[in-house]
Specification:
The protein is of the alpha+beta class. It has two domains: 102 residues, N-terminal domain of the delta subunit of the F1F0-ATP synthase (Peroxidase, domain 1); 73 residues, Glutaredoxin (3-Layer(aba) Sandwich), CATH 3.40.30. It is built from eight helices and four strands, in the order ααααααβαβββα. It has a four-stranded mixed beta sheet. α1 crosses α6, α2 runs antiparallel to α6 and α4 packs across α5. It is globular and about 60 Å long. The two termini are 39 Å apart.
Length: 182
Amino acid sequence: MAELSTIGRPYAEALFRVASEDATSDAMTRWSSLVANMGAVASDPDMRRVLADPRVNADQVYGVFVGALGSEPPTTAQNFIRTLIDNDRLGVMPEIAAQFAALVDARQGSAEAHITSAFPMDDGEVADLVVALEKKFAIKLKAMVDVDPSLIGGVRVVVGDRVLDTSVRSRLDAMKTALTAA
């Protein structure tokens, strides 16, 4: 089966085009919120069970999904949801939402930086790191910080498809590879 990113990309791009063509001043914000909400609903374990149940027809899936959104989406979004359901792709919605968010970030000249640290970082340390990373990657970054003690020390940063790994764990792994290769 094709990777979720390959399947989700055309859908995300289509949604992004629709959001870009919306002439209202807060269109991208509204669409971003709606698409993120759709991704969250589609990733819910209960919704996944509904999607996997062969006894539930397309209209029922649509009703449950829209009901879980909390409010009636615009007509364009309703058509999009029905298209996903008809093509058995509603389960890809979390990936579509992630790619849509990346397209919005790219348009705004920013990106998410997933920072994994061996130890908890305070706000000042995160801010200092983000400033340095923005200079390195030449883009405005929004930090998402996690802690992983298995790194032993240092940080691992992922921005899009670029990785900067200065962790002790990666250095130890590199030394192990070099020593066993000789």
